[in-house]
Amino acid sequence: SMIVFFNPVKFGVTFTLGNAMALGSTAFLIGPKRQFDMMLDPVRIYATAIYIASIIISLFCALLVHSKLLTLLAIVLEFGALIWYSLSYIPFARSVVSKVMASCFDTEF
């Protein structure tokens, strides 16, 4: 995990390619058409769009911009999008996480 601090560009590329392979592996297990239909389900269309956009942004920052800071920020964005996308497959998980986060950061006591 310390590779992030020394070379975030290399970590960004490998982490992003790993996420792309994970999407491909679920498409292999359940079939590409069903995977695509599930990704475009109205419940998770926004989570899917943000997740795929974060993958593209991470690769763009790592391979074309070569900025360590932007790549590190893109990795954080991609990780958050991955969590939110994964929660979309668990019933009521996103609403529970949203309520817990809202209560944790609530300023009224």
UniProtKB/TrEMBL annotation:
Major localisation: membrane
Keyword Phosphoprotein appears in the UniProt entry: no
Record-level GO cellular component terms: cytoplasm; endomembrane system; membrane
Transmembrane domains' residue ranges: 12-31, 43-65, 71-92
Record's subcellular location: Membrane
Any single biological process term in GO: protein transport
Topology of this chain in the membrane: Multi-pass membrane protein
Superkingdom of source: Eukaryota
Keywords recorded for this protein, A-Z: Membrane, Protein transport, Transmembrane, Transmembrane helix, Transport
UniProt entry tagged with the keyword Transmembrane: yes
Described purpose of this protein according to its UniProt entry: May be involved in fusion of retrograde transport vesicles derived from an endocytic compartment with the Golgi complex.
Sequence similarity: Belongs to the SFT2 family.
Name this protein carries in UniProt: Vesicle transport protein
Species assigned in the record: Aegilops tauschii subsp. strangulata
